[in-house]
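Fold sample X.
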Amino acid sequence: MRESEILNKIKQVPCTVVGLGVSNLPLIDFLLERGATVTARDQKTQEDLGEIATALAQKGVRLILGEHYLDTIDEGIIFRSPGLRPDLPAFAAALDRGAILTSEMELFLELTPATVIAITGSDGKTTTTTLTGLMLDAECKKRGRGNVFVGGNIGTPLLSRVGEMTEDDFAVLELSSFQLQTVRRSADVAAITNITPNHLNWHTGMEEYIDAKTNIFSHTPCRRLITNSENEVTAALARNTDRPLTLFSSIKHTYEEFDLPQGAQAVYERDGTVRYWNGSRETEIVRVDDVILPGRHNLENYMTAIALTAETVTPETVVEIAKSFTGVEHRLERVRIFDGVTYYNSSIDTSPTRTAAALSALREKPIVICGGYDKHIPFEPLADALCERAKAVILTGATAKKICAVLNARPEVQSGALPVMEEPDFEKAVLLAKKKAQSGDTVLLSPACASFDAFPNFAARGNTFRRIVENFE
């Protein structure tokens, strides 16, 4: 474990952990084990937190809970939850008094001796992270050296395992813009899958959202950036960085088409094969037909993972993963076929671009269930995808009327070619899809929105959809 300025101070300076979420509870244990004096703050009351609050108090943690949990932060080190903006007035006042503002992820990046491979982007992060971890793990096992730890925005927090990690290991991280907003240390190898409007209810605008994403590569020790040459924002980032670069594209077919800077690398597809250009030589990696995940977006996820692991993973290992990996829960997950209708759970689709990708991956036009929490992103791209690729649309959740207004302006809807229905209740929306579907149809849950209007997270929404469909009689 590397030296850390924060760890060197925690025995002398009291700490506060703000937000008692998934990553911060293990963080508290980590700090206590190293002799820190810890205060925990959360907007929830002691009654709301229940056993969590009781357990923390028994460990000697001071609790400041409820409406005024941010009042008078007098601790010297503040660990914020990723969901809390770093510019909150309470944080600003504490910083003026000399406090340090950091996070569980920032501490992990400081401490781990493992090679950090990190992935961010508006879409495709989780699948790419999972693929990268699988490829590296398979290769490490073949070589008999090194372990792979997968975490960040998925899985379990890795800080509590940092003591197990060595320089032979890999830490594969999915990182959100919330986690990246204040980091001052980048990954060793970083990928940005794409950037499209997202989380604009939290960020002040696209500029801040993009700036947060760039923290994944803009600091030391990043030695390579992998990104999408077909995405307008990431292509601009690539043109303006001095980091060693690997570009990927599911449209380009030769490295010459990329107009690569000197020494840059590329991943692309030609004649049904994904190929890797290392700056001087082309290598065939995997046949597209060997990739069992559907859709061009998943091919791009493979391209990203191939670029991230090019120094370590052989083409043979990539092929093994491609032939066996069936996908991640809640991502075009086939739930069942009932009365001749196929039901897909793609609850992870929390943006219009994700829904567009899911629609393009299906051969048939589905009945699509859309809608959810409003992140204040434009729905015109969603309307484009639905008008082109959907058989019918059922709108639910907080954004139903907003999406409906955009769709109602389209000639496909006005003419009745694309039926659009509203059903505020989620379960009734699923049952309405069942009623409208005929044998041979497909029903796709692809909300294009976050879940927080009705569910704690996208997984809970997907599990509810799965339960409703599995209980059809």
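Fold sample Y, listed below.
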Amino acid sequence: MFNDKALLITGGTGSFGQAFVKTVLERFMPRRLIVFSRDEQKQYEMEQTIGQGVVRYVLGDVRDRERLRRVSEGMDVIVHAAALKQVPTAENNPIEAVKTNILGAENVIFAAADNQVSRVIALSTDKAVNPINLYGATKLVSDKLFVAANGGDDKGRHTKFSVVRYGNVFTSRGSVVPYFIRLASEGATELPITDTRMTRFWITLQEGVDFVLGCLERMYGGEILVPRIPSVRMIDVAKAVAPKLGIKVVGIRPGEKLHETLCPRDESHLTLRFANHYVICPSIAMPNARDYRTDASGAQGQPIEDGFAYDSETNERFLTPEEIARSAAASPSRIIHSMPTFG
């Protein structure tokens, strides 16, 4: 569906953005692919590895509505990946997080609608579910904005806006796997674990990209799409990275949860289970209302049981340390090339 299409990705020089651009170029023949970000150094580095061709690198900030409006002209698809994502950074700089994650989301919505972009997907996070930190709160507002944006206008034009929500990408820059690898390579004798009970969902960078590409085909607009993925125990992640090192419990950091939730219990009446993902239907009325039980690709979903919550603690599948190591080693991320393997 992306052949001869024009795509824009905000935050395009981040880990997800780079993997997304590479995957699109490998599988499709887009007419144009714009990498939009505020980091000129990362754009330069990305250009050296990916090149130009149909790819155009545009400097700008999602806080700048007019810049976004101009760069969105002629686009068929927008993937909104730009955000301030670090929990401590958001806690210490709350207004900056609001400007980027909330006002930036609003700017993307206006730019897409003004230019009649066909489809827009925004990347969300588990931290938007029952948030206990500012980052999660800003992403919750962002999710609500994108869902509510599906109103069209008085001329009948309608841009489809949907949200993709998943947890931490463990093999991306800044995540715990590269951090553990760095500590091990520097001669650490033990790895820090916040709590031995802590669990997380596990998704690799490529799996995240593939899910977003699939959602661009199956979306109607207004839904939040969540992949069905395994969980990991953080103590098992440490064992997978460096099985010979000890473990040091350092305590839960401010704004951190023991377990992740992607589909909250309070929205079980809105949630549908598909073969490989969940769909949280909008709680507000949508124009041209669809039956989300059959998605745009024809896949069938079923309502989940009342009171169901999709969280990392009670997930039906957990990876073993060996499976974690194999999954991480298979990731295309250049950061984890030194991941140990099990024979």
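Sample Y note: Confidence is low (pLDDT under 50) at residues 333-343.
Also: The radius of gyration is 20 Å.
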